[in-house]
Amino acid sequence: MHVLRLIFKNSFRHKLRTFLTVLGVSIAILAFGLLRTVVSAWYAGVEASSASRLVTRNAISLIFPLPLSYKEKIRQVEGVKSVSYGSWFGGIYIDEKHFFANYAMEPEHYLAIYPEIIIPPDQKAAFLRDRKSAVAGRKLADRYGWKIGDAVTLRGTIFPGNWEFIIRGIYRGRDQNVDETAFFFHWEYLNETMKKTSPGRADQVGWYMVEVRNPNLAADVSVRIDKMFRNSLAETLTETEKAFNLGFISMTEAILITIQLVSYVIILIIMAVVANTMAMTARERIGEYAVFKTLGFGGFHVAGLIFGESLFITLTGAAIGILLTFPAAKVFAQQLSTYFPIFNVERETIYLDIAAACLIGISAAAFPTWRAVRIRIADGLRRIG
Amino acid sequence: MTGKPVIVEIKNLYKSYRRGDQILPVLTDISLDIEESEFLALMGPSGSGKTTLLNLIAGIDKADSGIIRVGGIDITALSENELALWRASNVGFIFQFYNLIPVLTAFENVELPLLITGLSKGERRVHAEMALGVVNLTDRVAHYPGQLSGGQQQRVAIARAIVTDPSILVADEPTGDLDRVSAIEVLELMERLVHELGKTIIMVTHDPRAARMAHLIKHLDKGVLNARPQADF
Prior knowledge:
CATH architecture of chain B: 3-Layer(aba) Sandwich
Oligomer: heterodimer
Shape of chain B: globular
CATH class of chain B: Alpha Beta
Largest sheet of chain A: 10 strands, mixed
Order of helices and strands of chain B: EEEHEEHEHHHEHEHEE
Strand content of chain B: 25-35%
Number of strands of chain A: 12
Structural class of chain B: alpha/beta
Number of domains of chain A: 2
Largest sheet of chain B: 6 strands, mixed
Radius of gyration of chain A: 29 Å
CATH superfamily of chain B: P-loop containing nucleotide triphosphate hydrolases
């Protein structure tokens, strides 16, 4: 007979109580895991950032463009390996509910700077050949059933009119954290149209993507670029891709903090529930613990029984909760792909789930253990009968 | 006294409990010698201090003052941890309500005190089976307490008490929850433990029948000890 078996048997002495507690822990861990995944999804763009990529934008705001003429000047800055550019298009497909990121970009260098965007060579060649073509992410294409050669019309908001594109490529991400729901097309197509319809808006870009030769040079290169355009009509702000993406997140920081707080509150609530279960359990068995102590078992053994049972219940609940997190996240990812293009349950989330379960188990057992260890044997034995 | 070695020696023992601001004396100046292989019954009205004296002898409670020597060891000088270790190998406990662990089988309950002795699994099995053999319950090893009668449960408890081969057994109302037949069986078994295995038994009881099985009866009244011959019953 082993102590572990005794812990196991003790855990099922009140089957309904144990079942309900395990269920509560499972739901709490599931909710905690999903909320943490939402937080991770928020930071997915940051995680996918490369240390060797810089973003140069208008120093006033991202909504103000930069002249195309800056491209050659930036390319000549010491430490710069490659330069590309793009503009946020903000087109609407069908209606506003069908949101996805869509932007115009200079494809040749852009795709070289983003090696994590994988396009089959024949599709890439077809895309580069056809100025009215576009590339969609795998998930986006799946969502709308797009195939190579399909025509897609976007209604422009920033750039008015109906814009027609032919899907020439469908990309996938090299890594799990690459957004596969974006849609991009030739900046030249946008610019040529602007030259015809709004010449004043032609030859303007939303941002420059700058690849540096060495990530260690990123800070120096940023300073050099911004210094070059100081006191110009369009001053620049250059920052790492990570800082650029974090800038977006900081706008929604309050929501993120709220989500994080809610996830911790869930853990606190379930901690109280499990603590209540363990307190009832320990109170009912105080006589038994006295018998154990009478037989020569020390406080350490009694503590082991209570902590063991508490951890068994919480870890069982956590295991179920973690297992449920994956299918639940899949459903979330499908339903919320518009808002969270990357919604993966990360390993860190699982570690956090396990850590939370251990914390719940240990905290819930602490007070009952203290009482059980502290009680005098004679007092404990008097509770029997 | 029969001239046998004294195994329990109690001198000038005092014990009181505190209730609020009040101090309630429970045992007053108790002195008592118990010889080896003695079967002693402690009797007295409720609240006279019988169980308290038993707990002190068994090392599960602490005296205010006085000395309790068991097998030559002054247990009043031992720390909690030392007392726990001492109890594990020197004292066997028999309770009124058996106090078996309901989720463990008869065998597992008997094996329980051996888990802290450092014996191997095989050695524990031999000891537990032997103890269950002494109480004639080898056919009930896989039964849970809930599947046993009161008498059988008490016999399992006795097997658990003797499995570590302690020199002293303390029994608090061992027949208090049993019918007449089961009570007699248990008492006969306890008598066998004294005669055949040389155990010393100290038993608290209200039951004159149980007391009659004892070699010696001591009466406690308001915390003071008086001796009366067995023939009084």
